[in-house]
Amino acid sequence: MSASEGKNKKDKIYWVPLESSPQVMNKIIEHMGVGASVKFDDVYDFDEEILSMVAQPVHALVFLFPEVEETNKVREVEAQSSKDKVSPNIWHMRQTIGNACGTMAIFHALGNNQKTLPIGGNIAAFFDKVNGLSPEDKAKVLEQSKEMEEAHRSGASEDQSAAPEADADVDYHYVALTIVDGDLYEIDGGLSVPINHGPATDVLRDGVRVAKRRIAAMEDKNIGFSLIALSSVAED
Prior knowledge:
By secondary structure, the chain is of the alpha+beta class. The protein is built from eight helices and six strands; from the N terminus they run H-E-H-E-H-H-H-H-H-E-E-E-H-E. Helix 1 packs antiparallel against helix 7. It is globular, with a radius of gyration of 16 Å.
């Protein structure tokens, strides 16, 4: 979903909500044109023994959590307090397409690591086209991009035997966590600015710290979370 869905529902563009699955996300980035040496994979637990098994280097995390009003308010306050602490090198796009937050998190994970990832094809062309645009204008370009919509659909139809309707009401949200210019950012198209979580050197462990804090604040809700890492892997 999105933290800021402003248009009337009948006037919005909607994409089918994504399942929280590395297989789904890998299908999308493959279709976009990302090289096979980069993959998404589950972070199964936050214990150090499990974290040490995650493929390195980790470039970004995609964090899924429930849409809870109290948490949304906290995040909005954190975003506003980050206004003057956001690197000019952050790649940020607003979300105007309903239920596209999963793919938005993928855009933010890739967009903030363009210099280190094997990005080509349609996604490279998209990044070139929106280079220098505001987050709002990037979103307008995405609304018109058939190539990116097709990439999303390639994943939305993968491993989703009972996919919801595109305009279904969903109660979860995806964000990206990654390091830009030495700070860890929580990047969300539903927020006007990314949230700066301060100095960081390890995307995985510093990102887990943020995820654990979010989870602790919602532990009484008895609903699910997931964390998926975007890592470099050895090619087959």
